[in-house]
């Protein structure tokens, strides 16, 4: 499980949690996801092509409580991790999730996630995530693709981290995800742990939030909006999400 903080300037929302499913159990995962989508009234949203059914590596489920600042109701979000990508999978299951995605699938060794968010007020929104290890940014095709889609500054910052992700969301702000300890807690230290530009607002927030300060050594990811202002990483961010392992 991971705990998530949504930091909005000097406010912190802590009513958010992630359950990370175990990978490598596709048949079980598919059955559980079918049940969950039905329970949430989203049965018609789940892509039905056989490629997706057999491609799903793991499911992540999150709960995000109500957000008084944005007046968003609580939501349950279901993320499906795909084991790679091909043209058919991209066209059938990923590109329809967001209108700004190009016809061409992302290049390189991408790890895509598709997400559906079911809100308390009945709204259902879709999202597409593209995750890369740092070495993939040595590929000019990856740099060019996301330089257009997310901006060159986002790509420059992404490559400074062990892994990173670009999130395109119908229901809220597009985000850049930056990993600090992305998978195993005992993974080898990476220079991002002392040089990431996200450390400035992260440490500032921890100074004001004792509970976040207690979990700093367990922070796995930080996500920030794909805007010029956010990518300057001021001490006080308009929005920043912090994920820490429990």
What does this structure look like?
The protein has 246 residues and is α+β, with helices and mostly antiparallel strands. The chain has helices spanning 26-39, 50-55, 87-94, 140-149, 152-158, 192-195, 199-208, 210-214; strands at 2-8, 11-13, 16-20, 56-64, 75-82, 111-119, 124-133, 163-169, 175-179, 219-225, 240-245. Strands 1-3-4-5-6-7-8-9-10-11 form a 10-stranded antiparallel beta barrel. Strand 8 (163-169) and strand 9 (175-179) form a beta hairpin.
* Main β-sheet description: 10 strands, antiparallel, barrel
The end-to-end span amounts to 6 Å
Q: What is the approximate shape?
A: globular
Q: What class do helices, strands and sheet pairing give? A: alpha+beta
Oligomer: single chain
The SSE string, one letter per element, is EEEHHEEHEEHHEEHHHEE
Question: So how many helices?
Answer: 8
Low-confidence stretches: none
Q: Spatial order of the strands in the main sheet? A: 1-3-4-5-6-7-8-9-10-11
Helix content: 25-40%
Mean pLDDT: 89
* Radius of gyration from the alpha-carbon trace, in angstroms: 17 Å
Q: Strand-residue fraction?
A: 25-35%
- Strand segment tally: 11
